[in-house]
Amino acid sequence: MSEKAVYRRILLKLSGEALMGEFPYGIDPKVVRSVASEIKTVFELGVQIGVVVGGGNIFRGLSESAKALDRTVADHMGMLATVMNSLALQAALEAIGIPTRVLSAIEMRAISEPYIQRRAIRHLEKGRLVIFAAGTGNTFFSTDTAAALRAAEIKADVLLKATKVEGIYEADPIKNPNAKKYEKLSYQEALTQNLKVMDATAIAICRDNTLPVIVFSMLGKENLKKIICGSHIGTSMG
Questions:
Q1: Whole-number mean pLDDT of the chain?
Q2: CA distance 133 to 107
Q3: pTM, entire model
Q4: How many Cβ atoms from other residues are within 10 Å of residue 72's Cβ?
Q5: Where are the beta strands (DSSP E) in 106-210?
Q6: What is the pLDDT of residue 219?
Q7: Distance (Å, rounded) from C-alpha 30 to C-alpha 39?
Q8: Any idea which architecture 9-237 has in CATH?
Q9: Sign of the C-alpha dihedral, residues 7, 99, 132, 39?
Q10: Mean of the pLDDT values across residues 147-161?
Q11: pLDDT tens profile 38-67
Q12: What strands, in cross-sheet order, belong to the sheet with 9-14?
């Protein structure tokens, strides 16, 4: 495998659930350190990295526990969960020598910088990894939409969505082991087949900005680095 990166700037989308490991909820420090280590292998290739992390391991606005709450309140709580995950990931990255900034769509200056597009790009250009917290700052929008929006705003070359499965399947591969895995999909196919890999708003943003998407498993060792160096892993959408 070549050690040369084929992408200059990427946006990595991590699910909050990926950070809880074998825990029923919350953050598993071992998993966070492992994710940080995988990211470091790409950072060392000189790639500019933006990250969006979800909050489903702590609180999800559409979860069963949120049903008794007003949707707006629940979504705000979910956004705060993404900030907690972002700070945990920042700590793990900086512990292994990666300068990191957390930019939040909801201002909380004591613990993060406010999200400003030009500031984010400037941090990337200065060799800092940027974590985008609090989603888009708006309720009723998912962190997938936030990832697509931030990727478009920073002019990323690709959006990489890390999951627990190997790519996009025609059905849930955990429930149906015989489900077919797609190697490549168009945006329209993902929408019309309602594959739920990303919500429709996120896919539309990617389509309208001609932003390639790669869905892959973060569980495979160095999968992230392999993709950055040009290997075909997971499912490509575009």
A1: 93
A2: 10
A3: 0.94
A4: 12
A5: 113-114, 129-133, 158-163, 168-169, 181-182, 184-185
A6: 81
A7: 14
A8: 3-Layer(aba) Sandwich (3.40)
A9: positive
A10: 98
A11: 999 999 999 999 999 999 898 876 566 677
A12: 113-114, 100-104, 129-133, 48-53, 9-14, 158-163, 213-217, 235-237, 184-185
